[in-house]
Amino acid sequence: MDTNAGNASTEASPKPDGRGTSGALGQNPPSLPKQWYVSRGGTHQGPVAIDQVVAAIGCRELALTDLCWKTNWRQGIEQWTPIGAVAEITDYLRACGGGGLSQQEILEGMRKAQDLAMHYSNLAIQRVREFADSKNVQKMKKLSQEATRNAFTAFMLFAINPMAGLPLAYQKLGKKGALSAGIVFFIIYEAAVLIAAKVAGIQLAAGDWFNAAVVLAVPFAAVALVSMGLRLVSSSRETFHAEIFFSGAAFLSIVIFALIAYMASGINPYLIVPVAMFGACYLILLFYSAHTRIYRLSESVGTFSVPLMLILAAWLTYKVLGRMFASQLGNLEQFLR
After folding, report:
1. 328 vs 160, which has greater pLDDT?
2. Which of 145, 186, 152 is nearest to 172 (CA)?
3. 0.85 exceeded by the pTM?
4. Of 114, 186, 182, 108, whose CA–CA distance to 151 is shortest?
5. Count of domains observed in the chain
6. Which SS3 state, helix, strand or coil, does residue 166 take?
């Protein structure tokens, strides 16, 4: 029994080469849908039907230790697997009276195929462990832990006092540390909103959840880009690290105040208004601190740069989302008319 194609079984999502079929695999016409590919000695054939596979096994053109793969991804197998380890084929083989094989040959072939499948599974697990232990993964793990610590340090500094704490956190962490903290803040913001949507019972397909994440990134990017433009106009010596840092801090604050408002609404719905007003004031102070103490703009300039930034960021967000959902907005306008 040929197992030379064994290494292919550990490849996820294989793509058969579709070289056609020969011998019993080429019996025409098959009585069942062609959903299977088979591999023997490194040569792939298919697509073929399950009765063609069984016929090839009975003619000794295929062994139960050779490999197969099903085209139906969701309901079938997802990688090259020994034929004898696939219950769908072995059950069909037995239902056909063995297809020319004795009961002992079938049992022996199934045992060897299952041993082979276990071997491939162990190899895959070993490769995953080797990858997890690789230097790059360890480096990424270390960077993520450092970024999380930076984010926690920054939050503890500006949470109570955004005016003094935000520039202090930026100075203490340095540009790279502040950048990593801003990215963590952004990830928390995205995750919190998506989880809240899920808890609220919003049902979306996998691709729609990705689109939702892109939509949530638009206002964040708008604030960062508009702030960058104001920084360049003002000739500040800061870099994009600053925009990512305080934009992330702002959107993390929005999530926190939204959570507080939600909890307050359970006590009295009217409490949402003071919480929203408090949150708006907090965000204005946070941006004012970023402009005057990180960008080092004068207080008089900061008085105008903050509202200008918010207006331009809101306009940019509206334009981008309008482009993204132009067809939906057009349908809404027609409905309202």
Report:
1. 160
2. 152
3. no
4. 182
5. 2
6. helix
